[in-house]
Amino acid sequence: QVHLVESGGGLVQAGGSMTLACAASTGALTIYGWFRQAPGKERDFVARTSWSGATTYVADSVQGRFTISRDNAKNTVYLQMNSLKPEDTALYYCAARGGWADDETLSQERGYTYWGQGTQVTVSS
């Protein structure tokens, strides 16, 4: 019933920038997150934000390079990625939920109810 659609992925050279977007079919969701998964690896938390923008968190692995933001009028969340590295290559997923949970839960897959189909980001060296 709730749909999340990612876009903006593709191929980029190391050191370059790319912005991912996640468009939601409803504006009623409370928390949005970004996760990524490389081949053969676990799905890792990247960043999250409250819909109000009052609470934002970025994982240590991308701190200083990635920024999460949102446009409430468009029901869309963005992930701005700068200074990209080959190790950032992964399938990036948008996730969302209603209600609220503690910080630990919101940094794990189990904290989210809805998921997008993923968009591939490939960083060449």
Describe the structure.
There is one protein chain. With 125 residues, the chain is mainly β. The chain has no helices and eleven strands. It has strands spanning 4-7, 10-13, 18-24, 31-37, 44-50, 56-58, 66-71, 76-81, 90-97, 114-115, 119-124. The strands form two sheets. Strands 2, 4, 5, 6, 9, 10 and 11 form a seven-stranded mixed β-sheet that branches. Strands 1-3-8-7 form a four-stranded antiparallel β-sheet, with no helix packed on it. The model has no long low-confidence stretch (mean pLDDT 95).
Question: Layout of SSEs?
Answer:
Elements: E1 4-7, E2 10-13, E3 18-24, E4 31-37, E5 44-50, E6 56-58, E7 66-71, E8 76-81, E9 90-97, E10 114-115, E11 119-124
Parallel strand pairs: 2-11
Antiparallel strand pairs: 1-3, 3-8, 4-5, 4-9, 5-6, 7-8, 9-10, 9-11
What's the quick description here?
This protein has 125 residues and is an all-beta fold. 0% of the residues lie in helices and 48% in strands. It has strands at residues 4-7, 10-13, 18-24, 31-37, 44-50, 56-58, 66-71, 76-81, 90-97, 114-115, 119-124.
Tally the beta strands.
Answer: 11
Given the C-alpha coordinates, what overall shape results? globular
The overall pLDDT, averaged over residues, is 95
Gyration radius from CA atoms, angstroms:
13 Å
Decide which structural class fits the backbone: mainly beta
**What is the rounded distance between the termini?**
40 Å
Individual helix count: 0
Tell me roughly what share of residues is in helical segments. Answer: under 10%
Strand coverage percent:
over 45%
Largest sheet: 7 strands, mixed
Low-confidence stretches: none
What's the helix-strand series? EEEEEEEEEEE
